Inverse folding.
């Protein structure tokens, strides 16, 4: 690599180089002392430039003089005229002077804020003016009301409510946590209401939130505070107090203000509420600005004992450096605080804690791979730990975690849903002669509509946990309600369609007490169910709807087969028709799993596998798995050979699953690894039963094969550490011993003795094996 | 008589602080040495040019009116000179900034006490904390330190702008301070992209050098 130019060095310093370029650059500067010095210089320069930028270029190159200040009562009175009588000057705000005055017409005290003359024409000045007008139309009990916005000549001033009170942090000194939180929530409501109208405060701090003698907090200066606090402004005396409440985006150039900026200041207040200290207590301006931009505050729980962790998390989330990681508006922050106050679970996770966890997990995972490759941990342990780590890094949506927990509320939700579904099913199951036909399906239809409406409302209100509960119930009710409606009201009955006469739902014994349903009706109900399940799945992304979708799909498939007259209810046909969809589901599951949609892949793979196993078993029973049918084997032998063949198929499938190397596939492979040996050894054992027509000569072969196969499985387990093979093998050996004891060596004392001796020999062999292996290894090395 | 001379100079220094700096480059070490050894009025002018606006701003921040702040600044300057010539300031023991801060704060609080109550801008007697100016005891020091830092940087930037080609400084100002894209700056000033990068690097490197010089960091540790 040639020596990089200044542009490249600058890109490196600001971290804009790509990883490969960066590595190359770092390699180069290790070798080239000139470039190393240039890079170090550029780094120092950048630090200085960052500081210069915090002052703002205007304040450094041409320091603006503050002119036309209204600094005397007489001057203020001159501008205000007769309506307001100025009492005293009470201070200089960030954007202008403030006086206490009396409105002589309405006889009430007011505060008058003069906007600086040089601000009036600037963009910021116009913005403040515009927002003050907006705020004057807005009334909130916790916001100091703006009565009037006036213009006298070139001077603009704002007349607002006079609040006599103490700053928030002063007022809550004598209060406990709950009382403080109540005050804080009132402030949050006020800020949220303003945010809702698109007005940002920009300068929330305790001196701008006064608490009256009746403990009512009032937020002052809403929408009329300055936009930013730069070191330059502090230097020129334009900003008062410490800017400890400024958000990172407020003190860096270019300034980008949003509602999240207010959330940061509210986060600082919450930190103070919890700990009575500031999150960034630095007093040196440079240090403070640096801290706000880069550093993370000390954990409130480390400053003060017994701080509720949910509140700590809420606070830290509000103090995120990146505005997009904070609560976007005060409303969202307020929702979480209120959730805490109601005793509900709060799921906010501050990114820096998550980052910390992720960093730690990253290192651990690297170690895990090393441990695994060095065989310090088994594949199973590796999988389990990986699974846990993955969940720690990418936790599912909080509502899903909540929905999976069997909390009292959750149990009530599911129980209610289940009872409603059962109630609708009773309507379906029994005949209701005494009720007019029109009303029979009504309760189920009404329940479905109600559940769906409630679910959608909850979903819109971000109550995902409840929404999924209601929507799932509605989803289960849909097929029942539709079938009831079509059946009771005789819409599309079976008699009208030659291919719809065969009904699946007709009771065989007491037809009158059941609702007779045509296949067309079933087809409509199942397709509607499938459509709604897929729609809810797409909207909520909850895996329960994936399961519903699969069941609805299978139901729809069945009805289609019946309508198409493909199935004559022969097992062979059912197996063939469901084996293919089963394999299809399984393959779709594998594809989804490979693409990372594990949540959807799990139900697809599991149901696909169940279908495959059931169908293969049915086919085996029909002797259809094996293509050839040797004539020297009896019918029963053929059945069991088919089962053994299935066992081999499962083992092959397990091998294929292992090839994909994802966790789901490994779990499926494990299940198949159990199914394989059980089918093979079970088949061999069953073949030896006397009640089946297996010729005696064949029985001897099976009796010999069973222990041999069992031992082969036991030793086969060594290669891939497969416990399923090992335990199936042990089981097989037990079965073989039982068979040999009862059939071949009955009454022979030498048999148990020889078994014991064989056992002891094998145990001794276990001593010798490692030595023998070591000597073989040594020979190989030599 | 000495006071009158000072007063005149202070006023002129307060009005045109930048111009004084333009005349000649002077580090704090140079100024302090000059104050100690000679009665040269240009040194005193420089000193006032540097520190008078700072004290005025600070006094206004603490809550004095513009006129009172000017008075307080003059008194601070004189109090400093008296103490400095009396040998009370040891550079090894603390920063000049901290020492001057102590003097300024005492003088300003003194002026505040003398003033009639209604003249004070930040009177809290109304029982409200509207824009309370001295809400935080650390705020005063914070404001002082920030102003000190800005003064240093402004002085050094002025010096750099004098030393370097105006186009170079302009390139730095547009690209680095105003954050304009390098392409735009290059077109505006008809120079190559690399020249813009070089301009930025040159200004900043020189600025760092001057900053250390100004604060006397290279000579006697902290000032």
């Amino acid at each position: 690599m040639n020596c990089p130019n200044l542009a490249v060095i600058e890109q490196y310093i600001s971290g804009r180089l790509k990883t490969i370029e960066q590595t190359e650059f770092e390699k180069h500067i290790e070798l080239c002392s000139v470039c190393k010095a240039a890079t170090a210089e550029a780094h120092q320069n950048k630090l200085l430039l960052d500081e210069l930028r915090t002052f703002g270029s205007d304040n450094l190159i041409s320091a603006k003089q503050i002119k036309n200040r209204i600094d005397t009562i007489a001057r203020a009175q001159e501008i205000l005229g007769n309506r307001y009588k100025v009492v005293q000057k009470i201070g200089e705000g960030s954007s202008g002077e403030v006086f206490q005055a009396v409105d002589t017409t309405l006889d009430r005290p007011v505060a008058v804020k003069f906007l600086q003359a040089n601000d009036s024409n600037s963009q910021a000045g116009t913005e403040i003016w515009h927002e003050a007008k907006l705020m004057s139309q807005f009334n909130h009990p916790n916001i100091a009301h703006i009565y009037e916005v006036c213009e006298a000549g070139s001077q603009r001033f704002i007349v607002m409510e006079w609040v006599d009170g103490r700053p928030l942090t002063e007022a809550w000194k004598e209060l406990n946590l709950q009382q403080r939180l109540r005050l804080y929530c009132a402030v949050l409501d006020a800020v949220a209401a303003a945010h809702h109208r698109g007005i940002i405060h920009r300068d929330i701090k305790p001196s701008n939130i006064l608490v009256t003698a009746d403990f009512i907090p009032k937020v002052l200066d809403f929408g009329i505070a300055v936009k930013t606090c730069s070191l330059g402004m502090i230097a020129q005396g334009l900003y008062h107090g410490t800017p400890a409440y400024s958000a990172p985006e407020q003190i860096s150039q270019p300034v980008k203000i949003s509602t999240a900026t207010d959330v940061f200041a509210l986060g600082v207040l919450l930190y103070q509420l919890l700990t009575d200290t500031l999150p960034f207590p630095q007093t040196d301006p440079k240090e403070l600005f640096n801290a706000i931009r880069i550093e993370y505050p000390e954990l409130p729980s480390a400053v003060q004992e017994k701080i509720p962790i949910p509140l700590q998390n809420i606070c830290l989330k509000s103090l995120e450096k990146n505005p997009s990681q904070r609560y976007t508006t005060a409303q969202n922050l307020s929702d979480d605080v209120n959730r805490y106050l109601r005793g509900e679970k709060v799921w906010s996770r501050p990114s820096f804690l998550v980052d910390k966890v992720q960093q730690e997990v990253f290192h651990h995972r690297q170690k895990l791979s090393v441990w695994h490759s060095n065989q310090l941990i088994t594949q199973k342990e590796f999988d389990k730990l990986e699974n846990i780590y993955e969940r720690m890094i990418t936790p599912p949506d909080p509502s899903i975690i909540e929905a999976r927990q069997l909390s009292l509320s959750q149990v009530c939700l599911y129980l209610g849903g289940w009872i409603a579904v059962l109630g609708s099913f009773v309507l379906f199951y029994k005949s209701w002669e005494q009720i007019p036909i029109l009303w029979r399906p009504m309760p189920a239809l009404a329940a479905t509509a109600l559940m769906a409406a409630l679910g959608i409302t909850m979903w819109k209100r971000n109550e995902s946990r409840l929404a999924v509960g209601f929507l799932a119930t509605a989803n289960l009710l849909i097929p029942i309600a539709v079938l009831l409606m079509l059946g009771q009201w005789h819409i599309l009955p079976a008699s009208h369609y030659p291919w719809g006469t065969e009904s699946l739902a007709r009771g065989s014994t007491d037809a009158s007490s059941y609702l007779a349903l045509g296949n067309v009706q079933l087809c409509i109900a199942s397709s509607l169910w499938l459509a709604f399940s897929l729609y809810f799945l797409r909207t909520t992304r909850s895996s329960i709807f994936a399961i519903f979708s699969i069941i609805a799909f299978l139901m729809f498939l069945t009805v289609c087969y019946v309508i198409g007259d493909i199935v004559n209810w022969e097992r062979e046909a059912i197996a063939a028709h469901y084996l293919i969809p089963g394999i299809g589901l399984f393959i779709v599951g594998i594809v989804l799993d490979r693409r990372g949609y594990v949540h959807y892949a799990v139900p697809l793979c599991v149901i696909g596998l169940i279908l495959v196993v059931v169908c293969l078993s049915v086919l085996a029973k029909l002797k259809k798995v094996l293509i050839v049918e040797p004539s020297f084997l009896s019918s029963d032998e053929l059945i069991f050979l088919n089962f053994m063949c299935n066992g081999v198929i499962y083992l092959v499938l397990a091998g294929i699953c292992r090839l994909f190397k994802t966790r789901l596939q490994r779990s499926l492979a494990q299940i198949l690894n159990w199914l394989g040996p059980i089918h093979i050894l079970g088949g061999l054992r069953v073949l030896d039963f006397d009640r089946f027509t297996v010729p005696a000569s064949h029985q001897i072969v099976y009796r010999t094969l069973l222990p041999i196969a069992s031992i082969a499985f036991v030793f086969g387990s060594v290669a891939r550490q497969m416990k399923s093979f090992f335990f199936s093998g042990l089981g097989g050996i037990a079965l073989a011993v039982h068979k040999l004891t009862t059939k071949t060596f009955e009454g022979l004392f030498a048999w148990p003795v020889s078994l014991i001796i064989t056992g002891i020999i094998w145990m001794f062999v276990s001593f010798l094996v490692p030595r023998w292996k070591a000597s073989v290894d040594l020979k190989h090395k030599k | 008589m000495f006071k009158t001379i000072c007063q005149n100079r202070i006023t002129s220094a307060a009005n045109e602080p930048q111009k004084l700096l333009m005349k000649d480059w002077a580090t704090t070490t140079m100024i302090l040495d000059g104050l100690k050894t000679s009665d040269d009025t240009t040194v005193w002018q420089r000193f006032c040019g540097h520190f008078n606006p700072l004290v005025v701003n600070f006094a206004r921040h603490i809550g004095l009116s513009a006129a009172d702040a000017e008075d307080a600044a003059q008194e601070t300057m004189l109090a400093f000179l008296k103490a400095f010539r009396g040998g009370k300031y040891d550079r090894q023991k603390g920063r000049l900034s901290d020492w001057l801060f102590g003097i300024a704060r005492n003088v300003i609080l003194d002026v505040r006490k003398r003033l009639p109550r209604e003249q004070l801008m930040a009177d809290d007697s109304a029982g409200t904390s509207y824009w309370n100016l001295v809400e935080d005891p650390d705020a005063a020091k914070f404001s002082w330190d920030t102003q000190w830092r800005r003064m240093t940087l402004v002085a050094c930037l002025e010096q750099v702008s004098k030393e370097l080609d105006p186009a170079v400084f302009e390139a730095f100002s547009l690209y680095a301070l105003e954050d304009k894209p390098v392409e735009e700056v290059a077109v505006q000033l008809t120079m190559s992209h690399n020249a813009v990068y070089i301009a930025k690097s040159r200004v900043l490197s020189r600025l760092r050098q001057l900053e250390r010089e100004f604060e006397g960091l290279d000579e006697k540790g902290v000032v």
Remarks:
- Chain B touches chain A through 52 residues (CB under 8 Å).
- The two ends of chain B are 31 Å apart (CA to CA).
- Residues 1-23, 118-135, 218-223 of chain B have pLDDT under 50 and may be disordered.
